[in-house]
Structures are given as structure tokens and as C-alpha cells.
Specification:
Number of strands: 11
CATH architecture: Sandwich
Oligomer: single chain
Strand content: 35-45%
CATH class: Mainly Beta
Number of domains: 1
Order of helices and strands: EEEEEEEEEHEE
Largest sheet: 5 strands, antiparallel
Length: 151
């Protein structure tokens, strides 16, 4: 799973909608992601957006990766990544219920909720970038993800 996913440079923002809107990318398209299925309002949802396949799913080593940390809300949260240049991207996220900044596991199985763009299937580990990839074009981009829990 997204064990290394961390909110590098991100901080929790009050309310269920949060995200950076960098002036440098004002020409990009607004990317909003609704995440459903959160089992509790404990902790936070940590997410990252990346365009480099080698950096997926944990976003490490990719300077242009965007990280968000949003307070959890039972049911649904909305992530706003702000203006994103046209291209191909993938999102990985998890519900950090205990607020420790990492995806907790037991015997390599996630104990907290996780998800990927396009609700990419998980088989013996995280999906490949291509399975979670989606295009951002000339209009506002939207993604709907479902949080998954094993325990």
C-alpha cells in the first residue's frame, strides 16, 4: 500500500475542503477529488498527486508532487488540489486515523483506509501508475474515490 505516503510540506486545514492554489500554476485546471466511505471523523486524510510513474504511490523523489492533509469527516471529504497543468496524474491517499503521519500495517496489510484514483484495483500491493492514471485537460477535473478498509 502507500506506506511511504507522507504529507511532506502539508498541514491540516480546517474544514473538509482544503488545498493549495499556487500562483505559478494559475493557468492550470482546478482538480477536486471527493473521497467517500470514511468510517470515522478521526485523524486526517493524507493524499498525494503525482505525474511521474516512478514516484507512485508514495510520491517520494518527485519535486512536483502535491501533498494534502485534510481533517477526516465521517462519510465524505473533498480534496482541492487547486490549479493543475494539463497532463496525466495519479492520486494515492489514506485515512490516518491515529494522526501519526503514516499508513499503519499489520503483517503488510493496511490497518487504516486507503484509496487510489480511478479506484484502481489492489492485488498483492498497490496498483501501478497506469491503473490509477487520469488525464487533466482543458476543463475542471474531478475524481471520485472510495476509501477502502480491510480491518
Amino acid at each position: 500500500m502507500a506506506a511511504g505516503l507522507a504529507p511532506a510540506g502539508a498541514s491540516p486545514v480546517a474544514g473538509p475542503v482544503a488545498g493549495p492554489r499556487p500562483d505559478a500554476e494559475a493557468g492550470g485546471q482546478d482538480l477536486r477529488v471527493s473521497v467517500t466511505g470514511l468510517r470515522s471523523g478521526k485523524g486526517q486524510v493524507l493524499a498525494c498527486l503525482v505525474s511521474e510513474p516512478a514516484a507512485f504511490p508514495d510520491c517520494r523523489g518527485h519535486a512536483a508532487a502535491r501533498h494534502l492533509a485534510v481533517p477526516a469527516v465521517a462519510g465524505t471529504v473533498v480534496l482541492d488540489f487547486g490549479a493543475v497543468p494539463p497532463g496525466t496524474y495519479a492520486i494515492s491517499l489514506f485515512h490516518d486515523e491515529n494522526g501519526n503521519g503514516r499508513l499503519d500495517k499489520a503483517m503488510m496489510i493496511p490497518r487504516e483506509g486507503y484509496g487510489f484514483s480511478r479506484n484502481a484495483p489492489v492485488r498483492f500491493g498497490p496498483p501501478r501508475f497506469a491503473a490509477a492514471a487520469f488525464a487533466v485537460g482543458n476543463g475542471p477535473a474531478r475524481q471520485a474515490l472510495k476509501m477502502r478498509y480491510i480491518f
